[in-house]
Amino acid sequence: MKKTLSITLSLLLLATVLVSCGGKEEVAATTAPAPTTTTKTVETKAAEPKAEEPKVEEKPAPAVAAVEETKDEGVKFVISNGAEPQSLDPAKVQGVPEHRILMALFEGLTSIDPKTANPIPGLAKSWESNEDGTQYTFHLRQTTWSDGVPITANDVVYSWLRELDPNTASPYAWFPCMFLEGAQAFNDGTGTADGVGIRALDDYTFQMDLIGPLPYAIGALEHYSFAVVPKHAIEKYGDQWTQPENFVGNGPFTLKERIPQSKIVCVPNEKYWDADSVKIDTLEFLSSDDENTNYNMFLDGQIDWLTNVPTDKISSASMKDSYFASPQLSTYYYVFQTEKAPLDNVNLRKAIAYAINREDLVEGVTKAGQTPAWGIVPPMAGYDALEFPFDSDEEATEMAREFLNEAGYPNGVGCPTITVLYNTSEGHKQIAEFVQQELKNKLNINIELVNKEWGTYLTDRNNGDFEISRAGWVGDYQDPNTFLDMFLTGSAMNGGRYESEVYDTLVREAATIADSVERMGVLKTAEDTMINEDCAIVPFYYYVTLNMIDTNVWGGWYTNTMDYHPVKTIYKK
Prior knowledge:
Number of domains: 2
Radius of gyration: 23 Å
Helix content: 25-40%
Number of strands: 21
Number of helices: 17
CATH superfamily of the largest domain: Periplasmic binding protein-like II
Shape: globular
CATH class of the largest domain: Alpha Beta
Distance between the termini: 46 Å
């Protein structure tokens, strides 16, 4: 299995490099290239994005094109966005459905190139760093909020401190803590806001101090935890500031209507600094996690961009020109609750991890070309995925049974029934049923499946209210660190309550290392500690992203390893 997996991962790595044109340090030229190297007091600028992106290769249109043009709506673009979003407040969310919406409503210091997923200028028109890459200075555009109020560097300071403030209780506050000097202390209550390394040098100049020479920092600033939000609207309307009648944003679109459990409707933000580039008149995000219904709506012309394809429809969908499957920088995995019996027993965790046949899972259940995974970090430039510690399923099963004996449950005798939590999705259900069968057949362990809707699932997972929980992680930037820092002790994303002084030390040490090869080596040791020594999680596979969109009708939509598709660049051909 090692040899086969090595070849597969090598091919995936090649595909990843071809799509992204290299890692963080080798950025391909684009219509709006981003600064990615750090040089002392040398300003790095990028060309302004063109009003229209180059067209992709022409493909035949489906029988029904989902383009609607009316006097009131103009060009309408409809997205199947998955579950109902938790919130439209960037400080209150943590999921992919929310991210797609927030990319339309807000813009941080940087944005995303739709072809490469590399950072490009956003609210900041340019930036430079000091010599060792620990301090960045950003030069902001002179632009306004959607209500015409000027946006200043003080808004950036306010927004980031609000995210970090423990009173905000942001589920993603841990993320800026991995970058900003003094952020962790402020967030955990041992420091103050004044101690956070951010400041407004003047109305249009913002500066941040990093915890170390982080080569991936600029790429992370697009994330909604670094979003810039309107202080004046939040202070005026409180928790109601994201209601359509009160909403103020700075993205290419603004909020027009929200119908819970149905849809979110957006229209162009006329005050946006690059408003001329926006070619969609009405943007709709449909809130539905019924994959089969969404698929049928796409076929019927009611959805323009389908963001997922039901497993049982992949075979037929893949025959269509509107089907796009591409490697994604993301991993599907299960999390163990390591604080509570019986899964506080590392040998029981290892028994479960070794018993699940990933190749059978991706070939017989998911069927979309996913790559079996043993580690959490997908292969990327400069970083190889962890190898499987066995050569066959027979060997893995034998090892699993040995771990089960060491755990005190020979042939599963005495092992209590274990619950597996997953959020509503036919695909997640099928995977959970596969795991249930594997553990029963190989280890005689009984598994109970627990299905909950998105919001409740997230609450239970974050609170550690589970035994085993489904999880998936899409990299927030193109570096291994984005898959590892969330498992640090005390991280809000560490629902399994994994604690390891060795792991914490390694991940934090890596943040101080400037040499790329040395840093990658330290991160690999950290990953090995969490997976092979402590078995805190069970990775299953590296994702292949599945989308359907008729690129004969729509331009400006491209596949990339982050599966990021800014709606700002999408236009009707």
